[in-house]
Amino acid sequence: MSDRRAAIVEGSIPRTLVGLALPLVAQNVVRVAQQVVDTFWLGRLGETAVAAVGLTIPVLGVCFALLVTPFVGTQILVSQRVGADDDAGAHRMVVHGFVLALLVGALVGGAVFLGAAPVVRLVGAGPDVAPLAALYLAVVGLGLPLAGASDAIEAGFVGRGDSRASLWINVATVAVNVVLDPILIFGVGPIRGMGVRGAALATVGGYAAGLSLALALALGPRMHLARRHLSLTAADFRDLLSVGAPITGRQVVSQSVRVLLVGVVALAGGAPGLAAYTIGARVASVAVLPSRGLGQAAQSMVGQNVGADRPDRARRTTRVGVVVAAGSLACLGAAQWLVPAPVARLFVPSLAGDGLSLTVQYLTILAYGYPAIGAVDALLAGFNGASRTRTSFVADLLKYWVVRLPVAALALPATASASLLGVTVAPGLDLGMPAVFWAVTGSNVVAAVGVGAYYASAVRGGLFVDAAADVETAADDDGSADPTD
């Protein structure tokens, strides 16, 4: 038994969970830093360049949602097989995830490359922004197979309990991107500056660097991936799709509603409302980094304990995850509630007037829902680790489409409606931006209560016991566990 597996299935749950989560939190911080640096260099080109790249964010969000299937499927299934002491099966699952990510990335990237121009027009690009946005999107689209393949290997490391390898892969990706940005955007020596195209190529270069390091680590002593693990089976691909596809659905659900909410906010709050909503979203994306890292760590720990036939520890891991994630976000929320104005000005120093007033209101309301976000992340990690990923999909479907969007639509004037991507939001009750703010926080709290109640019922019904039995049955059917691997 490896030291990492021993700690996960036998050691202190709080200490192991936090130790596994810290590198994942750090890698999320690194990714946020990359976005800041990218915006800094693009800002030197002017507002049009920043707007063009910013317009591609929701499109790329949907693209990466499609790549979530091999990522999540690999992490969960690798963790379960490692827990079952089936290293050979875990290695083969990494290979299957890698191949599936390459295929999905190639299909999505090819579609993006060929359809970049109409796509950016569909999301509202004007004639001044559309050409640059299409150029950036097309070039980055070509790098999606590299990004997806790198993520799949990274997921294999996280599933094994080696989150530090995942951190280093992300550091390599971001570091190369950051170094290449000014060189390819503005040019250095014989290298001609390429503007927005250079920014896109720098991003693809970062993907290539991350994949190179991921392969080196996987083929080296960190994972010992070898030629004997290259056999592909339809059954393993089906398992990946079964576990990972619902999380892709979950991502698409959340991304689509976020696009619609921007339309609602634009009609209900104008420029000040958009500023408040955007700043609040950015602040929240930073605040939830600890919760996201803890959720990923708990997912791997639950998966390994399920594979090791330790349903009791899987249940305790989820419980500890809820306490730590909700507690850490409660502390962050309290700080945000106490000083919302300085937090707002930290992101936009020049903010004033109605924009500042609405932002302070939104940050205050957001803070009430932070503990709920942490609790949901940990609870869904428990379901995911037990291969019940459909629960995550249904939870977000209800959270966004049944609660958040309808309540937010009440902010619309009684004579207006928003129509985006073929979806029309009916006229509201003219409740203004507070309806949007409370829709976000209220949906988070409702999700925590609903998922918590369902989790309690599922545990009483044998959630982790049944999952452990399923893993054991699959291992018996496969007959491939190789303790000498």
Automatic annotation (TrEMBL):
GO terms for molecular function: antiporter activity; xenobiotic transmembrane transporter activity. The chain crosses the membrane at residues 49-72, 93-117, 129-147, 167-187, 199-219, 320-339, 359-380, 401-423, 435-456. Keywords: Antiport, Cell membrane, Ion transport, Membrane, Transmembrane, Transmembrane helix, Transport. It is a multi-pass membrane protein. It is found in: Cell membrane. Pfam families: MatE. One of its GO terms (cellular component) is plasma membrane. InterPro entries: MATE_fam (IPR002528), MATE_MdtK (IPR050222), MdtK-like (IPR048279). GO terms for biological process: monoatomic ion transport. NCBIfam families: matE (TIGR00797). PANTHER family: FMN_FAD EXPORTER YEEO-RELATED (PTHR43298:SF2), MULTIDRUG RESISTANCE PROTEIN NORM-RELATED (PTHR43298). This is Multidrug-efflux transporter. It comes from Haloplanus salinus.
